[in-house]
Amino acid sequence: MAKKTHKSPEQARDAILDAAEQIVVQVGPAGLRISAVAKKAGMAHPNIIHHFGSREGLLNSLANRMGERATHRITEAIKTAVDAPAQGKAAAMTQVLDTAYPGDEGRAAVWMHLSGAESSLKENMQQIVELSHQLRKTVSEDADLEHTNRLVMLVTLALVGEVVSGQGIKEALGFAEDNRAHFRAWLAEILLNLPDDQLSTSLDINHSIPQNHK
Amino acid sequence: MAKKTHKSPEQARDAILDAAEQIVVQVGPAGLRISAVAKKAGMAHPNIIHHFGSREGLLNSLANRMGERATHRITEAIKTAVDAPAQGKAAAMTQVLDTAYPGDEGRAAVWMHLSGAESSLKENMQQIVELSHQLRKTVSEDADLEHTNRLVMLVTLALVGEVVSGQGIKEALGFAEDNRAHFRAWLAEILLNLPDDQLSTSLDINHSIPQNHK
DNA sequence: ATCAGTATTTACAGAACTGTCAACAAGGTT
DNA sequence: AACCTTGTTGACAGTTCTGTAAATACTGAT
User: Residue A168 above 60 pLDDT?
Assistant: First the structure.
């Protein structure tokens, strides 16, 4: 009845991915039904299999698209933070944390990761570490790369944790609604003000004397 | 053929929960099939429904049991850290982080949380904050409770992040296998050595002067 | 020992979902 | 205009899973 205007493969795939992303954000990857995606995208469900091969193929494509978009947002935010003047560093750093995983999208990304979806995490993370190290060097020139590594890991883990459980933990700790952004700003400033020598622990001393005597 | 020795309801429930926990750790809550649980527990699947009402009831019971066990472990670890002597603080603090979410169990717990399972998070978190504040006061007596709140939030989020994505991020950053525990020790020492005044940011100053002129 | 209660099982009903197949339709190409 | 490629669809097959129902077996109490 309705006109079936044939879309180009790219258009069709994008429309399907848009619909799938909305659903995954709500119900998680395991709850995604291709019939629901088809309904939201306004088509019959075999069309989705035609474009993505299978339900799993759709989930992998979606995970990749979300990962690429997130990486692009994060790297752009870090770049602007690198170029920011000294008095604007804290705000720019906060911006980095804010754009890393905006809202429910990040939650869905982590969820998909748990469910085994593929994504090009490795290359992305190394790019992020490099940029972060540039950013740290704009604050203290003798910044240690190993410390940057660990700080990036800490921030990344905290961000992952926040998008997963941030809401619940915030409520459990009695934080007000707007304190979630406040927490990110607090974390950003602390990270910037951490002197590099404070990141060297006694463990590093032990670690710098490996016991290689065979 | 095999003797069907009738267990007490408690024994049966425990056996089922044990089997379910092993499976959830592997495949996540969405992938849990009560037939698989029954097979691992050595019984027929309707018996599980008889004891838990439904598949969802089983998942909720499991989430509660895991949450209670984790809370117990964490609070005990913090208590010993409170009583630890000064030179043993760092090691005790590391122990707290290590016992918080041991391995795959924590991953499953977060996964279940994402899938909407109920758990008594709120009461547990407040108890943990109180103990953590006691621990901080053994290091610096004038520790601010608000800072403890934020630190607990940071650590909790980082731990959640680690159990969820720690493996992948570690690999992406090129960390060796044993550096995962190393990261926790590093974080523990940093947390203990953070002076309280360094946790006060310019935001707190702004925040203490609210703009209420209407 | 008999009986009541319930833990346990076998068989089955019902629903939901993925993927297949054949047919149709739209859009560009010759 | 005829045609070919392919996006699109309706109907269907097959599988898998949850929950139900009735029968059975174990255990403790009287």
Answer: yes
Let me know if residue A18 belongs to a domain: no
Cβ separation A182–B203 shorter than 8 A: yes
Tens of pLDDT along B185-199?
Answer: 888 988 888 878 777
User: What backbone phi and psi angles, to 5 degrees, belong to A170?
Assistant: -60, -45
Q: Which domain holds residue A82?
A: 65-197
Residue B149 lies in a domain: yes
* B154 CB within 8 Å of a chain A CB: yes
Q: Please give the share of chain A, as a percent, with pLDDT higher than 70.
A: 87
Q: How far is A189 from chain B, CA to nearest CA, in Å?
A: 7
B166–A161 C-beta distance less than 8 A:
no
Asked, for residue B204, whether it belongs to a domain, the answer is no
Number of domains in chain B: 1
Which residues fall within 8 angstroms of residue B41, CB to CB, at 6 or more apart? B15, B16, B18, B19, B48
Instruction: Judge whether A75 is closer than 8 Å to chain B, CB to CB.
Output: no
The predicted pLDDT at position B3 comes to 54
Percent of chain A with pLDDT over 90: 38
**A 159-178 → B contacts, CB under 8 A:** 159-162, 164-166, 168-175
Q: What is the pTM of this model?
A: 0.82
Q: How far apart are CA B132 and CA B78, in angstroms?
A: 7
Task: Select from A150, A173, A190 the Cβ nearest to the Cβ of B129.
Answer: A173
Q: Write the CATH number for B184.
A: 1.10.357.10
In a domain, A39, yes or no: no
The DSSP-derived string for A41-92 is HTS-HHHHHHHHSSHHHHHHHHHHHHHHHHHHHHHHHHHHHHHS-GGGHHHH
Share of chain B above pLDDT 70, in %: 87
pLDDT at B87 over 80: yes
